[in-house]
Amino acid sequence: MPSFATPPVLPQVIGFDTATGAVTPVGRMIACRVTDLVGLCADETARRYMAEAGDPVVYEVVSSRVPETSGELPQSVTTIHPGTIGGEFHFTRGHMHTRARGEVYLGLTGTGGLLTFDGRRAVWVAMAPGTIGYIPPGWAHRSVNTGDEPYRFLAVYPGDAGHDHAWVAENGMGHRVMRGASGEPELAPFPRPAAGSR
Ligand code: PAN
Ligand code: ZN
What we know:
Blueprint: E1 15-16, E2 23-24, E3 29-33, H1 44-52, E4 57-63, E5 75-80, E6 84-85, E7 88-89, E8 96-97, E9 103-109, E10 112-117, E11 122-127, E12 132-135, E13 140-145, E14 151-156, E15 163-164, H2 165-171, E16 175-179, E17 185-189
Antiparallel strand pairs: 1-2, 3-4, 4-5, 5-14, 6-7, 8-15, 9-12, 9-14, 10-11, 10-13, 16-17
Zinc ion binds at residues 95, 97, 103, 141, 157.
GO molecular function: glucose-6-phosphate isomerase activity; metal ion binding
Family: Belongs to the archaeal-type GPI family.
Keywords: Gluconeogenesis, Glycolysis, Metal-binding
């Protein structure tokens, strides 16, 4: 028998409601509001204005109860609500895994994508329902909703991956995804001029 750092969980069914994104039984739940994106948006003035005018939820993450320990494969479902902040499509904070660990995403509803960045190169991975997005080790990743509906995806990652959000706050993501004049996503290099940013 392999040895485990913590008692392993039993084989189990994890309920998932495709209509609502609910996971049963549910573990950690996170709601990220405009307030929580301070220092991360292209337009800090627009972000602050939205934070003061209702501070809407930008995205939610629900996880199963599979523990984040070595050897396990925890999962979470992220729902990014549609919208923009200063012309920038709603996005997740983004993070680098603290260990060299990859991750698999499966698109469930809506359209969006994965902005990935290794510190030098930025790669955009377009996502739609049924798309499997792969993030190799050493690539920071941020998800973006580029459509008019909630963009939802399943993420499966090694339990010892670790999540370093400060890396993205310091290094950025190479590019940003802005809403073009026709509503289409446009990748803009980072940093871009941002009134009142930082
Ligand atoms: C995802 C992300 C989730 C939220 O489960 O953690 O989409 O993004 P942030 O953590 O950047 O706020 C994942 O990549 N896990 O490893
Ligand atoms: Zn990750």
